[in-house]
Amino acid sequence: MTERKAYTVTLSDGRTLSVMEAGNERDLAVIVHNGTPSGAGLLTENIEDAAALGLRLISYARPGYQASTRQPGRSVADAAKDTAELADLLSIERFATWGISGGGPHALACAALLPDRVVAAASLAGVAPYDAEGLDFMAGMGEDNIAEFGAALEGEKTLADYLSTQVPALLASTPAEMAAHMNSLLGGPDKAVFTDAFGAEMAGLMQQAIADGIYGWLDDDLAFTKPWGFDAAQIRVPLQIWQGTQDLMVPCSHGQWLAQHIPQADIHISDTDGHLTLYRTRVPEVHRWMKAHF
């Protein structure tokens, strides 16, 4: 198995980013934006698939997660700046990027704002903008996400209080206990993937992200519920959108809205997928599609 390398980098404004990568430095670079809450992490199955294709996976923790310096008030668009500077520090000129769940909007930001550097992008189970015209943002979400985003809309203090009540249970959970805690957000396909090593890695990514505090999670949620800082319709680079109809975290309507407003997007609606299953079932397809665009 290709080894993971974890390290930190310092940006031009003095902030630190936690980074994890796997693959050969000569390989084609793919920058991964993980979900919410999650830091710099790569799943074994994704690493092995990428290595077989000659792809180098790079993931970083958004501000507030792990050792990444918090950036209060950050927007989704700010991820494009951090991604570009990270690529510069790693001497990467052109790269592909995908994001899943809360990482989806951040991958879209890179596609929209870095068109000369992003060869292809993908959003898997990613949310649409909160203020999207014609979209009922929370329709179809599980109860826990309705409560979480409701708290975010009330402001930072309310959201901080809410997230602080969630962290102890998540940190103390086995994968099975975490699945039970997240019951309202997991349909049948997603519950199934929490039963093996894949589920244990997923749980570990979440626990690692919140072990040192709630602020990465909090700032993600606040960023999702305010203007993103770019218009998704301006995306011109090759783009895939993946959404599962059994997703209770980010309902399928979000992917459908994105597809309608980014006309050139290659849209994939899967009746067999939920939310977490896209990590396992669709990332290999995304990797093959991306490689063809380099």
UniProtKB/TrEMBL annotation:
Protein name: Pimeloyl-ACP methyl ester carboxylesterase
Gene source species: Alicyclobacillus cycloheptanicus
Domain AB hydrolase-1: 29-126
Family matches, as SUPFAM superfamilies: alpha/beta-Hydrolases
